[in-house]
Amino acid sequence: MKKQKTVHHGQQQQLEVQLDNPFELLAEEIVFLILDFLEGNPLDKKSFSLVCKSFHSIERSHRSALRPLRLERLPKILSRYPNAERLDLTLCPRVTDASLSAISSSCGPVLRSIDLSRSRFFSGSGLSRMVAECRNLVEIDLSNATDLRDAGVAVLAAAKNLERLWLRRCKLITDMGVGCIAVGCRKLKLLSLKWCLGVGDLGVELVAVKCNDIRTLDLSYLPISSKCLPSILKLQYLEDLILEGCFGLDNDSLAALEHGCKSLKTLDISSCQNISHVGLSSFLSGTECLKQLTLAHGSPVTAPLATSLKKLFMLQSLKLDGCSVTCSGLKAIGNSCGSLRELSLSKCPGVTDEGFSFLVARQKQLKKLDITCCRRITDFSIDHLTSSCKGLTSLRMESCSLVSKEAFILIGQRCTSLEELDLTDNEVDDEGLKSIGRCSRLTVLKLGICLNFTDKGLSCIGGSCSKLVELDLYRSAGISDSGILAIACSCTNLEMINTSYCNGITDTALIALSKCPRLTTVECRGVPHITSLGLAAIAIGCKQLARLDVKKCSMIDDAGMIPLAHFSQNLQQINLSYTSVTDVGLLSLTSISCLHNITILHHNGLTPSGLAAALLSCGGLAKVKLHVTFKTSLPQALLVHLEARGCVFHWRDKAFQAELDPKSWKLKLEDILP
Amino acid sequence: MEDLKMDDEEALCAETWLRPSSGNSIRQPNQPSFTNFTLSNDQPEWEDPSLLDYGVRIGTSFSKYSFAPDQDGQSLQSNNSNSKRGEVNQQINEVLKIGKAQDWDPRAMLNNLSFLEQKIHQLQDLVHLIVSRKDQILQQSDELAMQQQQLITADLTSIIVQLISTAGSLLPSVKHNLTGPTAMAIGKHRHISEILCNSGLGLDATNISESHGMGPNVANQVEPTGDTAPSHHPLDEPELKEEDDADEGENLPPGSYEILQLEKEEILAPHTHFCTICGKGFKRDANLRMHMRGHGDEYKTPEALAKPNKGNSSEAMLLKRYSCPFAGCKRNKDHKKFQPLKTILCVKNHYKRTHCDKSYICSRCNTKKFSVIADLKTHEKHCGKDKWLCSCGTTFSRKDKLFGHIALFQGHTPAIPLEESRGVEGLLEQGETTGGEKNRIDQSINFSFNTESHNGSRVQNIMDMKGSIDDPSSYLSPINYDSFNEFSRAAFDDPDGGFSFLIPGSCNYGQKNGGQSCYSDL
Lengths: 674, 522
Description:
The structure holds 2 protein chains of 2 kinds.
Chain A: H1 2-8, H2 11-20, H3 28-36, H4 42-49, H5 53-62, E1 65-66, H6 74-80, E2 86-88, H7 97-107, E3 113-115, H8 124-133, E4 139-141, H9 150-154, E5 164-166, H10 175-184, E6 190-192, H11 201-210, E7 216-218, H12 229-233, E8 240-242, H13 251-255, E9 266-268, H14 277-284, E10 292-294, H15 303-307, E11 317-319, H16 327-336, E12 342-344, H17 353-362, E13 368-370, H18 379-388, E14 394-396, H19 405-414, E15 420-422, H20 430-436, E16 444-446, H21 455-464, E17 470-472, H22 481-490, E18 496-498, H23 507-513, E19 521-523, H24 532-541, E20 547-549, H25 558-567, E21 573-575, H26 583-589, E22 597-600, H27 608-617, E23 623-627, H28 629-633, H29 636-644, E24 648-652, H30 662-672
Helix pairs in contact in A: 1-2, 6-7, 7-8, 10-11, 16-17, 17-18, 18-19, 19-20, 20-21, 21-22, 22-23, 23-24, 24-25, 25-26, 26-27
Chain B: H1 2-14, H2 23-26, H3 30-39, H4 49-63, H5 85-101, H6 106-139, H7 142-168, H8 175-178, H9 183-197, H10 205-213, H11 215-219, H12 242-245, E1 257-261, H13 264-268, E2 273-274, E3 281-282, H14 285-292, H15 302-305, E4 319-323, H16 344-355, E5 360-361, E6 369-370, H17 373-382, E7 388-390, E8 395-396, H18 399-408, E9 414-415, H19 418-421, H20 435-455, H21 458-470, H22 478-482, H23 486-493, H24 499-502
Parallel strand pairs in B: 1-4
Antiparallel strand pairs in B: 2-3, 5-6, 7-8, 7-9
Helix pairs in contact in B: 3-21, 4-7, 5-7, 5-9, 6-7, 6-21, 9-10
Protein name (chain A): F-box/LRR-repeat protein 15-like leucin rich repeat domain-containing protein
Organism (chain A): Trapa incisa
GO cellular component, one term (chain A): SCF ubiquitin ligase complex
């Protein structure tokens, strides 16, 4: 249109037109850069390409990553985007050999990365066509291809340029298949064999012998012994080694290791219960560059084990989740580790005030600390922590039940750099929150099951922590609309909010939250007063809404579904259980193209035929949770058809439970706890 | 010379239609052409100097047998397709006499050359005959065909022997060797002729005992003529078994032990102990002594039954070690890094495994071949259990061995068993995607080739031999092998993979006529 204008009118007018459309003056590269900023909402790029033909072609040639919602439109999509380098098929659960060969013939050498981790319906022949035609493939994710056998993965050997390969949970492949890959893909830098239960020492050893460029190796839960370790440790560039749950590794065999891996930066030997400090110290000898060590769910953290960390001068991160910890062990960590930045002691029984306060007094550089469920520490520890580690950016202290409300004032006063704070199930009160409000960089705040604070405290947070992205108020009984209002007004960056079981909340709060345009996740289970009106406001205001949980919100009905269907085109996951939504509302939702996960456990107002129509028309469904009665009342052929499309059904038979009020719920919770 | 003998052995085993006992003289024709196109790709003509060189060596080795006890000077021309067996014998003698009798002078050489020409014509005729007979034989009854086959074989043999020995006498430099030990040659020669005459029924007791009596010490006199090109194939190398290497670390100082070297005939003889009365052969001395009791009471005395060397054991015996008669072999006493073999059994196994054709084929897999029957039996115990397969075609009974192999060799990759990959349609079309798959097909072709040659008719074998003389390019030479892709190179490394290509018409000398029976075969 513009060009036509310029042809028909004079020189003067042409200039004016160009000034009206500054894009005419911009080089294509600059428009590409502008386009790169349209990341947030996928629909923005769509709007961009609808502006004019030139924008359309710019967007066409610039888009390099595709995440198609439907497989059947894939040929069209691929012909529209000829420069698609990365193809993420995680939303297409039914990728077959035919689709793979269509992809390979239309993408050809352009394709560099493909993610097939959600599909298991393809076989080796499709893969072999793909690796033959897409010669430049660098990254393949074949996780969860549980039907793939050795012959199927062996074809990957032809992908000579492959650098990153994920084979998680490919349970049927053995050493033979992995051996073929090792021989063929010599450039591999990352290989994940997590849960490949058929792969043992021989396959892993061959990978280590043949693929010398490996940087990251994930061998979690493999039945390997330490026989393959010498070859692995010889890998020149190995930086990241994950040996989680390798039960075959034990002290005796580790003691025989002669040299460590000098390049190793990250080591995860969590859940290796047969490795104690003896094996660990021989394993760690020579790995001076180690920066991160994970020993979660392993043998007890005692003084000798902690002393064996002394050699690791570069160690910055230590994760001991779930290990039983002794006081002397904690003290030894404090003494032997140079300067830890990150420490995780979550669910470690045995963390006491004495050991912990000694530890934090020595480790003044700590930035991240996780003391979730360390139920024996008190204000004493928090006092030492806050006075010594002033630079803390992340503190997770869920269920530290002996910590009193005064301690949270200290946290707010001393650790003002906090960005992440998890106070779930704690005694924090309004005073504490007021103090925490000084942490202006706070982005994640979890206040679930904290019954002692009210709107007043929350308003303080809202007033000062404008960077808040995630707020969890699960079962925080003292909250009402005004608290949420305060948050919604100032925290416009909010992406996730959980107000489940906050009885005091009404539509007003939701209407306020609809002013937060980045909101993607809204959980408000069991809030009896919210209605379709509030939901409609959210739908209109929060265009990026992806996950919505309104379970047990009985006031929500079909009227709320229609605006949702109209405005929330990014909605992926919805829980409508025990609402008043009927066939009509459900059918209207089917216009949301990316919806792939639906949970509807009630059956009032739903008919088998309505449900069947909804399920049929909702093409992208991957997971549907339904009441068990529909298993028999829905036509069997329909279920077969839907399953063939890649949809998985979960059948539940749970009677509706009336909600307890938060206080009695917490009392009940404490009864359950030991 | 020594290595030539080895190759003779191979040819011997390769061609059952020749009698192995007489093979020493017969096997020559195949050899020169074989070595020739191994080393160079020239057309193998008899006048080729390199060939002459071989011929000379053959001649010398043959000169041992050249003393003919009974010569009746029959015309050499009488040799045609239907000649009697006796004539063959005489012809050999005749030729040998020519080879031995005269000192070198150009005129004699001219004579020899014209004689060679004549013989080559005869040979051509004979081969033509064989070709023309090919069809007939197929129609005839097996027995008749066999007999005719044997006749032709004998003729062919004799002519070739003459050719070689005459060719050998052309070079003057070997004259001094011609005066070599004749005593044992008598025995040998008689042995050959005897067998040629008596349609192979029994063994002449005296001959055998004579040749047996030659013993290890006599054998030492046979010296290699020096610069023998090691024509024996690298394929043999991996086949060296632990028994050979058992004494690797022994490190006896040279001279501290006595080196014995058995002749290859002795090594390959099924029996080492023979009854001096009836000629019956035994593998063990004890069995012979038990047998001797039947020949009279004098053999029943305790002295006769006692171990013969028991008395000697008192005197300080020099340590005995054995040398392999094959020149160029590490186990040969002339090798720079000579490593002696400990016992006669070691010698036998070593020689058979390393320098002989592998004539025992596993009946289950039809692939694995062995030269020692015990090895075959060991293999048969676990044959079929070798389920770990490499892309090069090598199978392993243990997975870790396969992975060790793959870790060692570039380009080798585990081959997924067919049953499993069958489900993956279109996999085989993608040749480059799975070298393993593709190679397995190669392998199966290879196998079928083998079986064909096993079952092939004798005529076919003769044709093969002719091919090897006339046209070396009709066979895969090792040079061709080198230009193959890496996978088939792997097959080349593997002793079982490509070996059958190299030996034309390899062996229908299976288990059924292995061992003793080869003597009474004809």
